[in-house]
């Protein structure tokens, strides 16, 4: 099924034509032309059944005895095929906010996730005929797509090379949008945006995962600090030797590097120790 344009003319012109047939019917009956009067009245009633009003950002799907005749997408007053059913379909932008879903991420951790989906109908024929209820279809497929995407990523990952739900929200949202669009093509719906609105560990493991998250963050930070400390100690030794400020043997290099590492890595600021000599 594919949307096509239905036959229609300006509705005000249609009203004028109907008024002319009504006037002919009245005149015919007045002058006792019974048959002409009845025919004119029937034609007026037949054309009147084709008068329809289309609101802005709305489409009218025209159905003639079970056959799809086309859609009227322009707003205004129109005269279309008489004796037809005209079903309204909104073309306005709408959004669907999913409920909080409990799913397992790629590592098997239970998480709570929710998303908002912004969409609009771009093919009224598909929306009416290819699915039973396109609004309900959008809701169900949105939740299915959210579950599918959530199972492909871990909740959190402190490695710069890996993607995660919390750390790469834009990438996850784009994948969610593309995945959902593939599912909704059959319904004539276009997904304008899909973004996560809620993301958290499930309550039964939230406390334990928070401790794990904190421990992982501390280890990651410590790793960065150690890498920086090693680099700084190396630069200090190389600079001293280059400027010939000190002539350090291997033992003194080891002691200086050790002191620098302790000073940089320590959680507290380094306290200088002064040698005041020996008291007698």
TrEMBL record:
<feature type="transmembrane region" description="Helical">
    <location>
        <begin position="33"/>
        <end position="54"/>
    </location>
</feature>
<feature type="transmembrane region" description="Helical">
    <location>
        <begin position="61"/>
        <end position="85"/>
    </location>
</feature>
<protein>
    <submittedName>
        <fullName>SPFH domain-containing protein</fullName>
    </submittedName>
</protein>
<feature type="domain" description="Band 7">
    <location>
        <begin position="49"/>
        <end position="213"/>
    </location>
</feature>
<keyword id="KW-0812">Transmembrane</keyword>
<dbReference type="InterPro" id="IPR001107">
    <property type="entry name" value="Band_7"/>
</dbReference>
<feature type="transmembrane region" description="Helical">
    <location>
        <begin position="7"/>
        <end position="27"/>
    </location>
</feature>
<keyword id="KW-0472">Membrane</keyword>
<dbReference type="InterPro" id="IPR036013">
    <property type="entry name" value="Band_7/SPFH_dom_sf"/>
</dbReference>
<keyword id="KW-1133">Transmembrane helix</keyword>
<dbReference type="Pfam" id="PF01145">
    <property type="entry name" value="Band_7"/>
</dbReference>
């Amino acid at each position: 099924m594919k949307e096509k344009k239905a036959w229609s003319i300006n509705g005000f012109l249609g009203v004028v034509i109907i008024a002319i047939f009504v006037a002919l019917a009245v005149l015919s009956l007045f002058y006792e032309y019974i048959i002409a009067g009845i025919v004119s009245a029937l034609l007026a009633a037949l054309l009147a059944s084709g008068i329809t009003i289309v609101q802005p950002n709305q489409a009218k799907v025209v159905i003639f005895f079970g056959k799809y005749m086309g859609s009227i997408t322009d707003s205004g007053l129109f005269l279309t095929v008489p004796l037809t059913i005209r079903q309204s379909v909104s073309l306005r932008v709408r959004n669907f906010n999913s409920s909080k879903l409990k799913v397992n991420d790629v590592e098997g951790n239970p998480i709570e996730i929710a998303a908002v989906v912004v969409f609009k109908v771009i093919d009224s024929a598909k929306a009416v005929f290819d699915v039973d209820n396109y609004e309900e279809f959008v809701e169900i497929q949105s939740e299915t797509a959210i579950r599918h995407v959530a199972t492909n990523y871990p909740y959190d990952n402190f490695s710069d090379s890996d993607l995660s739900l919390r750390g790469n929200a834009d990438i996850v949202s784009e994948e969610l949008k593309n995945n959902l669009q593939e599912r909704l093509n059959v319904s004539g719906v276009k997904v304008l945006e899909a973004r996560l609105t809620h993301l958290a560990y499930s309550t039964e493991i939230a406390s334990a995962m928070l401790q794990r998250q904190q421990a992982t963050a501390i280890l990651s930070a410590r790793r960065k600090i150690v890498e920086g400390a090693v680099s700084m100690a190396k630069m200090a030794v190389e600079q001293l030797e280059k400027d010939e400020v000190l002539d350090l043997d291997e033992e003194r290099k080891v002691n200086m590097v050790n002191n620098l590492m302790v000073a940089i890595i320590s959680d507290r600021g380094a306290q200088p120790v002064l040698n005041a000599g020996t008291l007698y």
